[in-house]
Amino acid sequence: MTRPRSGRGFARLVRLPPFAWLSVFFLVPFAITLKISLSEPATAIPPYLPVLDWRAGLEGWSSFLEALDFDNYATLYADPLYRDAALGSLTYAAVASLILVALGIPLAYALARSPARWQPLLVALVVVPFWTSFLIRIYAWIAILKPEGLLNLVLLRLGLIAEPLTILNTDAAILIGLVYAYLPFMVLPLYAVMNRLDPTLREAAADLGASPTRVFWSVTLPLSLPGILAGAGLCFIPMVGEFVIPDLLGGSETLMLGRVLWTEFFSNRDWPLASAVAVLILGIVIGPVVLFRDSLRAGKTEDGRP
């Protein structure tokens, strides 16, 4: 049956606002960032060259395009500082994502298998941290992890340690902060997938003699893979460019792209190089974004929807 023209027109109209939003708040800023990354730093306002002279017409456009180059990207490739920062960001994000998967699967499974009347309350408890400022929550971890903080105080009182542990300004502190901050982003998508699984599949496996553990590993976990990928993608992508957590909980030697970008932009006033770092971060997270999109499509297919 052919859809009426009015229906097709309405469908296009409905899709227009999201495309307009993405164009204004993503494509245009990205184009500006990309252009600045191809420029050179300058002691001027704005602090980069070239700047397009609209009044010069075609000659101005020609001079503008000829002045653009890839020197900043060559610097990123040649300087080991930026390679180490990229590797550090990927390492922290990957390790934290693995920890989040290990913690998120049992938490989401417990939520999905809990009585229906308790699930809204339990989900609300997962969301409660979002009610407090992200910055305040990270500062709270400073008070917990510092040598005279709450964690060391409790361990000393219990007799588990003889002297305060050095946790703050270490890799462990960064991982603790990342896992704490992004755990809801792992649990909620995974819970949504597990909660929609057909319970008759588990019952059929149990009827065939499978133990609860075997049912989980053979039925529940494979069917929850789209949720695992979605949650891992939602966590990994922003963690690659994280700045606040490594800056507050990590030491001065911590190398992550977010801190490098901030340093280049605000301390060194090198906007072109900072923009190149931003484009590099975007290039790094494209892969997880594609995986996240594919996992959503796979989840829809398993639900019987096109």
TrEMBL record:
InterPro entries, alphabetized: MetI-like (IPR000515), MetI-like_sf (IPR035906)
Superkingdom as given in the UniProt entry: Bacteria
Membrane topology qualifier: Multi-pass membrane protein
Pfam families hit by this protein: BPD_transp_1
GO biological process, one term: transmembrane transport
Primary localization: membrane
Residue ranges occupied by any ABC transmembrane type-1 domain in the UniProt entry: 86-292
Protein name, per record: ABC transporter permease subunit
Membrane spanning residue stretches: 20-38, 90-109, 121-144, 172-194, 215-240, 271-292
Annotated compartments: Cell membrane
Species this protein is from: Methylobacterium mesophilicum SR1.6/6
PROSITE patterns recorded: ABC_TM1 (PS50928)
Entry keyword set: Cell membrane, Membrane, Transmembrane, Transmembrane helix, Transport
UniProt similarity note: Belongs to the binding-protein-dependent transport system permease family. CysTW subfamily.
Gene Ontology, cellular component aspect: plasma membrane
Gene3D superfamilies tied to this protein: MetI-like (1.10.3720.10)
